[in-house]
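F.,

This is the one I mentioned.
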């Protein structure tokens, strides 16, 4: 672990930010822009094809300086180095945190417990590539000799959200002869609907689970096995042709009946929500091919290198992480809206929810002390322009401050008449409207009657980041995901959290295990829960 740092609220930069906040909280973006003609070009940073314009944030140069000072006082540099060195910075689980090793170039060296892990990473990537080539080329046949046309990833959380998001995001690059589905929910509807129109003889299941013990995944995998075997004559030899596994747990994979030769490995130093570029991305590689997958990894790696080595003042993940701290802890913002203006990124906000909230939704520090400040904000969002016709009203005129991350591409992958100009015009207009608003004088000047004026005023001064790139490519997606991964890291370092454990998901799992037999039992059992839970269990048993 890095050298001890002072408690967050005792750091000089924190105190200075508190005082500074009082001075700047009423300053309007209109004035900040009016005072500095270059602001929109100055408060920008660029790397790996991603251009970040953070000028529409409620910051002055002094704010940025103080936030950077806070990063220094929080030993951010040391913590970044510790992560890249493979130190066990996930202290509560005693693990290294090395998703950056997943995209390290062949020949790099990152040592965990005396072992250079990079050759292992590339061995698995090579195995994935060979497998993907056989499936995509029709060489890998199902049990009856038919080629595989459908791929179903079974997984949940990090073993689902990354694969789904990446598949949707990179659909443009995918092999359209293959059908991809993703089953995550233990609700049988998810599985039933996913397989309804598929031929088991042409269907491959990828059972993706780091632990290979997750209730939802194992239940769905069992149903998938039954569904396949029933249609394929009950011969268990069919499992080898229709099931592969992605896991860290070879023993459990073998117990399930999947040949470990058909298992793609990853390691305990890869957190579930940081695993979409590990073997968990097998479905992604099957969809877009090994070459595009390598381009995706290159994009991740470019952002890693930037995060590791760029000065903080032009380091995109550092700037974005610090801005989130600024709004969460000083303005009291409760959420961050992520608003991609690209239909292919429709699952990106959902993906980010696990990445951000499972990482920084914590109430104690690394040392187990209760924090005295807010930690991880709620991330949410929808693609534009859809969100504009739904919740933007609140962002523009509501009482809450909602910092927004807009994501846009100057070129469309589907240029169609004037659609793209309209899409881009909308994202630019939203950021402009949020920042500058519309004053009562402007509203009146349009001839609005006095009684209606307050309703039509936009206060403005609502902050946003604009992340602009040329085209959505595999490399670009890698850089974008890594940007958020590292931004989350920055926030966690400032807040002194273990961003890599997730103890908060345990209790519900344990209680569910207790309730399952109570629901399934033939006899009425004595229930030992609270009166509400007892009553609800009884109602469910009556199917009422
Ligand atoms: O319940 C939360 C969680 O542990 C996530 O962190 C993880 O991504 C998900 O469950 C799935 O876990 P596994 O890959 O082990 O099935």
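My design for it:
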């Amino acid at each position: 672990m890095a050298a001890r740092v002072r408690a967050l609220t005792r750091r000089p930069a924190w105190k200075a930010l508190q005082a500074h906040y009082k001075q700047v909280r009423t300053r309007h973006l209109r004035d900040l822009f009016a005072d500095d003609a270059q602001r929109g070009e100055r408060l920008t940073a660029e790397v790996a094809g991603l251009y970040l314009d953070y000028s529409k944030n409620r910051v002055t140069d002094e704010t940025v300086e103080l936030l950077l000072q806070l990063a220094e006082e929080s030993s951010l540099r040391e913590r970044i180095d510790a992560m890249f060195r493979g130190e066990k910075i996930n202290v509560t689980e005693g693990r290294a945190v090395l998703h950056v090793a997943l995209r390290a170039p062949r020949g790099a060296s990152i040592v965990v417990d005396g072992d250079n892990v990079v050759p292992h990473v590339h061995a698995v990537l090579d195995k994935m590539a060979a497998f993907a080539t056989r499936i995509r080329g029709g060489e890998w046949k199902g049990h009856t000799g038919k080629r595989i046309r459908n791929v179903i990833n079974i997984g949940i959380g990090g073993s689902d959200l990354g694969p789904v998001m990446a598949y949707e995001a990179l659909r443009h690059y995918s092999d359209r002869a293959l059908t991809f589905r993703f089953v995550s929910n233990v609700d049988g509807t998810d599985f039933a609907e996913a397989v309804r129109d598929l031929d088991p003889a042409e269907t491959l299941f990828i059972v993706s689970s780091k632990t290979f013990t997750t209730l939802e995944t194992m239940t769905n995998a069992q149903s998938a096995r039954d569904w396949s075997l029933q249609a394929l004559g009950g011969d268990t030899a069919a499992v080898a042709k229709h099931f592969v596994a992605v896991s860290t747990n070879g023993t459990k994979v073998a117990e399930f009946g999947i040949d470990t030769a058909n298992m793609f490995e990853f390691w305990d130093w890869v957190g579930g929500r940081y695993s979409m570029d590990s073997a968990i991305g097998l479905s992604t590689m099957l969809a877009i091919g090994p070459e595009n997958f390598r381009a995706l990894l290159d994009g991740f790696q470019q952002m890693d290198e930037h995060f590791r080595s760029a000065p903080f003042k032009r380091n995109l993940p550092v700037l974005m992480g610090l801005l989130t701290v600024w709004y969460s802890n000083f303005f009291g913002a409760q959420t961050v809206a992520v608003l991609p203006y690209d239909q292919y990124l429709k699952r990106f906000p959902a993906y980010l929810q696990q990445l951000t909230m499972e990482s920084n939704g914590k109430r104690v520090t690394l040392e187990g002390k209760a924090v005295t400040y807010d930690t991880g904000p709620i991330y949410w969002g929808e693609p534009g322009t859809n969100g504009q016709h739904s919740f933007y009203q609140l962002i523009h005129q509501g009482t809450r401050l909602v910092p927004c991350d807009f994501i846009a591409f100057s070129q469309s992958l589907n240029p169609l008449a004037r659609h793209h100009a309209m899409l881009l015009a909308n994202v630019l207009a939203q950021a402009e409207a949020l920042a500058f608003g519309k004053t009562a004088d402007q509203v009146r000047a349009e001839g609005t009657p006095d009684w209606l004026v307050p309703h039509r005023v936009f206060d403005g001064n609502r902050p946003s980041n604009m992340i602009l790139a040329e085209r959505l490519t595999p490399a670009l997606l890698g850089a974008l995901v890594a940007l958020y991964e590292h931004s989350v890291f920055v926030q966690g370092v400032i807040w002194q959290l273990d961003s890599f454990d997730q103890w908060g998901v345990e209790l519900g799992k344990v209680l569910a295990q207790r309730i399952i037999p109570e629901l399934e039992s033939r006899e009425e059992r004595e229930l030992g829960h609270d009166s509400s839970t007892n009553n609800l269990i009884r109602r469910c048993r009556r199917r009422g």
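The chain has 22 helices and 13 strands.

Talk soon.
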